[in-house]
Amino acid sequence: YHFTLPKRYLSDASLNFYPDMLISLIPQQMEMLWTIAICLDSAELAQIFNYSISLLILCWIYIIGKKNNLSELEQLIAMILFYSISTVSSISSSGNIEMGAALFFISGLYLLIKFFDNFYWPDLIISGILFGMYAATKLPFIAMVLILLPFIIVTLKNKKRTIIFSFKTVVVFYASVFTFCSFWYFWSFYHTG
Questions:
Q1: Engineering a disulfide at 132: which of 22, 115, 170, 177 sits with its beta carbon 3.0 to 4.6 angstroms away?
Q2: pLDDT at 174
Q3: pLDDT of the chain, 193 residues: tens digit per residue
Q4: pTM of the model
Q5: In 3D, which of 39, 67, 73, 33 has the Cα closest to residue 53?
Q6: H-type helices in 20-162, by residue range?
Q7: Are the CB atoms for 30 and 79 separated by under 8 Å?
Q8: Mind giving me the DSSP string for 22-40?
Q9: Residue 60 backbone dihedrals phi, psi, to 5 degrees
Q10: Rg for the chain (alpha carbons), in Å?
Q11: Angle formed by the axes of helices 29-39 and 4-12, nearest 10°
């Protein structure tokens, strides 16, 4: 059903609410990215796009391993373990959205941790946007992003940051998250009340 909505959006030449598909009310992050490939009349290209996302996740695993001083062998083992999980290999070759969600999550988390190392604000904003993309991939994922709040507060406390700095960090991060994913929520509210 993940490819059904992009096809219907393209046939209607607009985003619409479909009463027969209640899933059209929830965020459609990955589906919208697949729409580009389906627009070229190629479901295969959409599948290749999904497979490419799994390769990008492997790159992130390598980057995170390198940042944490893992040896080349340990990094290779981490990548093989990730990809050898039967769910991962299955999802990477199908039209499921979880692979894209994993990419947004791992890249957002990397930038959030990088922000805690150098307190470079663009890292925090881009991390928030990536977590917003993650939250817009599947409805329950917004709760996962909210669960990051204690992690952010404890990390800032351990880094001996002021309360004002911590408050500013939380506001900037969650503003970045919700600015991105709120488009879908406003769109759903507009169409359904």
A1: 177
A2: 95
A3: 667 777 777 788 777 777 777 777 776 777 777 777 777 766 677 778 878 888 898 899 999 999 889 899 999 998 888 888 877 777 776 667 788 888 999 999 999 999 999 999 999 999 999 999 898 887 788 889 999 999 999 999 999 999 999 999 999 999 999 988 888 778 778 877 6
A4: 0.83
A5: 33
A6: 29-39, 43-67, 72-84, 86-92, 98-118, 121-135, 141-146, 148-158
A7: no
A8: GGGGS--HHHHHHHHHHHT
A9: -65, -40
A10: 18
A11: 60
Cα distances (angstroms) measured from residue 81 to each of 60, 66, 90, 113, 176: 14, 16, 14, 23, 32
Distance of alpha carbon 7 from alpha carbon 154, whole angstroms: 45
Reduced 3-state DSSP string for 144-161: HHHCHHHHHHHHHHHCCC
Please state, in angstroms and rounded to a whole number, the distance separating the CA atoms of residues 167 and 155: 13
Backbone dihedral region for residue 16 (phi beyond 0: left; psi -120 to 50: alpha; all else: beta): beta
**Residue 124 and residue 114 in contact, taking contact as beta carbons nearer than 8 Å:** no
In 3D, which of 75, 81, 80, 45 has the Cα closest to residue 63? Answer: 75
Q: Which residues contact 15 (CB under 8 A, 6 or more apart)?
A: 9, 187
If you search the block for the tokens 């790159």, which residue do you land on? 59
